[in-house]
Amino acid sequence: MSAYAWVNALGGLLIVTSTMVVLARSVKKSAILYALQSFVLVLLLVSLAFATDSEVLFMWSASAFITKVVLVPGMLLFLQRKLGADSQDLGERLSPFKSITLIALEVLICFAAIQGVDLYTAAEVKPALAISLAHFFIGLTCIVSQRNIVKQIFGYCLMENGSHVTLALLAPQAPELVEIGIATDAIFAVLIMVLMVLKIYKTTKTLDTRDLMELRG
Fold it and tell me: Hey, where are the domains in the chain?
């Protein structure tokens, strides 16, 4: 099995893990599944590094492990401990069947769209590239379809993972500084969102967006 085949296979596994993140009903389960997905992303970066002979991607994979597998899930688990019992049921707007159907539709659309891409860097990894683009829409779907503001943070994380993989596939020789910038933005964005959720929960005692639609003086 070639290194490019591993990249595409791991891309398929990313879809499975992202779907599990969307369907998970508690913060703890979602955080653990997100860490698992991020570990798959790290393996994808390592496989791509071997395939393209890119030393930069090895550094990307190391920094992605620290930020996405350790730091971000750690912050989300910290949020889970602070929320206590209210982190055990995140609720949902869409049923699991509807969520899976919508994700499958998004993946098919991205596979159709990517067929028109004719770039040398994407020639061997079109399936993985289509999946990485689908991740952006899966994250967006999670944000729009979930009524719990904590689950919307996971939607952002899925979108960020998708953009991370897309950049690695299209520009495997991009400087490490680019990866550092992406990772730093993600960490600080999640940190700010976690602090905002804690503030909102402390003030309103709810995490449901339906209860946060009205401004109260």
Answer: 3-88+118-212
